[in-house]
Amino acid sequence: MSKVLITGCGGFTGRHLADAMAANGHEVHALVHEGENRLIPSAQALHRCDVTDQAALSRLVRTISPDQVVHLAAISFAPHDDLAEMYRTNILGTRNLLGALAQSPIRPEAVLVASSANIYGHRGGRLTEDMPAAPFNDYGVTKATTEIVCGLFSEQLPIILVRPFNYTGLGQSAEFLIPKIVDHARRGIERIELGNIDVERDFSDVRTVIDAYQRLLATPDSQGGVFNVCSGRPIALRQVLNMVGELAGHRFDPISNPAFIRPNEPASLCGDPQRLEHMIGPLRTVPIAQTLKWMLND
After folding, report:
1. Which residues belong to any copy of the Ketoreductase domain (predicted)?
2. What are the E-state strand segments in the chain?
3. Where does the chain hold its CATH 3.40.50.720 domain(s)?
4. In the chain, how long is the greatest CA-to-CA distance?
5. I need a labelling partner for 88 at 20 to 30 A (CA). Which of 55, 116, 189, 225 fits?
């Protein structure tokens, strides 16, 4: 099978993707940042490199000569306090990687780059890929700019852009909403500070997301395309909170923290997966209840 380079492989999504691709017979090369000390058992090789180091990244790309690349390396927590680091990693890191791949003697067969649904901003309703970017935070700005950077290489590299909406699963940091709720339930903590839990959002299971990524990589017609990765079915955050409580036999005492409430937040939003499913077929969805059980029972 093919040789796959996964950047940001030490993160939540990268670890799940590495496991899945290795299980499917691929030779996985995991690129992690220099401070990552955890092993990735499913990876054939572990490479420590800062994506903002252009020279080191170029040497690594030439050494590996990957058949496929999945670019996940990014600072993905929107309230991250070091904006300079976020802009360097998300934008310059992408520019360095694509430049290295374009200059490599053997160019990859497919390059999947993770953008984000954050580029859509505060729009409500059902969001499609044709809508213009209107980010409302710095993370969204970096991802919208990442897409522009990808455009610079559209004639040189077979790039697939994905815009994942919210997704979760085992191993995601408790900085994120659903893992935070699960963590409180597992530790028996009733009081939990949240934002507006009456809004509806689009959530997927990480296993659905990485399956979509793999199928896009295996579909040549997807190259040059932009795809929402989403369920298309919004669910109220209050419903998620209640489901976790019921599954765990736990009572929550939710407290609304104004600091967690975004101004002009839409009551409901979700992505439209129609373009993605037209390209790769129906998504292999996992019901949210199964995802929550997986996270609670580990």
Report:
1. 2-142
2. 3-7, 27-32, 45-48, 68-71, 110-114, 125-127, 159-164, 166-168, 191-194, 200-205, 226-229, 234-236, 253-256, 269-271
3. 3-167+205-229
4. 59
5. 225
Full-prediction pTM beyond 0.85? yes
pLDDT tier at 204 (50, 70, 90 boundaries)?
very high
Element at 102 (helix H, strand E): helix 93-103
Q: What is the CA radius of gyration of the chain?
A: 19
Q: Percentage of the chain surpassing pLDDT 90?
A: 89
Fold of 169-202+233-270+284-297: UDP-galactose 4-epimerase; domain 1 (3.90.25)
3-state secondary structure of 24: coil
Round to whole Å and give the CA distance between 24 and 234. 31
User: What 3 state SS string does 112-132 have?
Assistant: EEECCHHHHCCCCEEECCCCC
Q: What angle do CA 206, 212, 216 make, to 5 degrees?
A: 150
Cα–Cα distance for residue pair 252/263, rounded to 1 Å = 25
Q: Output DSSP code: residue 268.
A: B
Contacts of 64 (CB under 8 A, 6+ apart): 3, 5, 29, 45, 47
Q: Determine the pLDDT at residue 80.
A: 60
Residue ranges, comma separated, of all CATH 3.90.25.10 domains in the chain are: 169-202+233-270+284-297
